Amino acid sequence: MTILHFSRTPNVMFSGRRGLSGFSLLEMMVSLVILTIVLAVVVGGMIQMQQRNSSENSKVDTVQQTRDFVDQMSRDIHDVGYPPGRVVNNNPGCANNPSVSCGLIMFSPTQIRYEGDLDGTGTVYQVWMQLLVPASGNCPCTLQRGVLTKAAALGGAQPTYFAQVNGVLNSGNGTGGSLYPIGLPSSGAGYNAYASADVFDAYFNDATSFVNATGGYSCNTVLDCSPIRSLQITANVVSTYADPTTKMYTVYSITSKARLNN
User: What is the pTM of this model?
Assistant: First the structure.
């Protein structure tokens, strides 16, 4: 008698499915946590890099804007007093003559006005510069420069302020104090030391500081301002963005002094 033996062949397909089984729930959770940490580090680095870039660009823009403004004032001052009233025949007085420059016509530690032929065309212009405080009453303030013809000024017009410097901290009153407090976060962290500097300073011919007949630090007429021979501008400015690491605002101090030619 022949006896047949049958052997069972393993189910290859079933065995393959067991070998390709997926991650367990624990493994997926661990992987997800690791991925989240990596993404958080990458995103945090990108945000910090963007903040650093904004901070550095703000510093460059602040310095350049302020330097351009200060240089413009120095160029203006060299043209103050031209054409001078003393060489105009039969001049009844420069104050009411739109073709004659009176030179410096107003000065205070936060505001100045002067006249001159700025472009060499014979047209006399008035230049108005002033420190503008925001509605909050706190600095950082804005330093503005506006220009209009003297003829328009005599007609009652005021200039359009088309050049300005933002972030000005100093609002000196001429006596070592400041007109406006500083409203930056952590204002006690050294910012207040920049507040008392005068935006504008004036000097006599012997380089001593200007004082008027009553001991004050301003003049509002051509005659009262006539002893002033040079002007100085000082701008203590902060950038728009704080340093992302220190959370402090960088302060830049730019000063320029120029002599009046009239």
Answer: 0.77
Condensed to tens digits (0 to 9), the pLDDT of residues 71-119 reads 888 888 877 876 665 444 444 478 888 988 888 999 999 999 999 888 8
Residues 6+ positions from 118 with CB-CB distance below 8 Å = 76, 79, 125, 127, 147
Q: Please say whether the beta carbons of 140 and 181 come within 8 A.
A: no
* Phi/psi at 156 (5° precision): 100, 5
DSSP element (H, E) containing 112: strand 111-116
Q: How many residues in total does the chain contain?
A: 262
The closest of 106, 118, 149, 113 to 129, measured between CA atoms, is 113
| Helix, strand, coil share of the chain (percent; to 5) | 30, 25, 45
Structure-block tokens of residue 254: 């730019």
Rounded-to-integer distance, Cα 130 and Cα 165, Å: 11
Q: Residue ranges of the domains in the chain? A: 59-259
> Distance between CA 63 and CA 199 in Å, rounded?
16
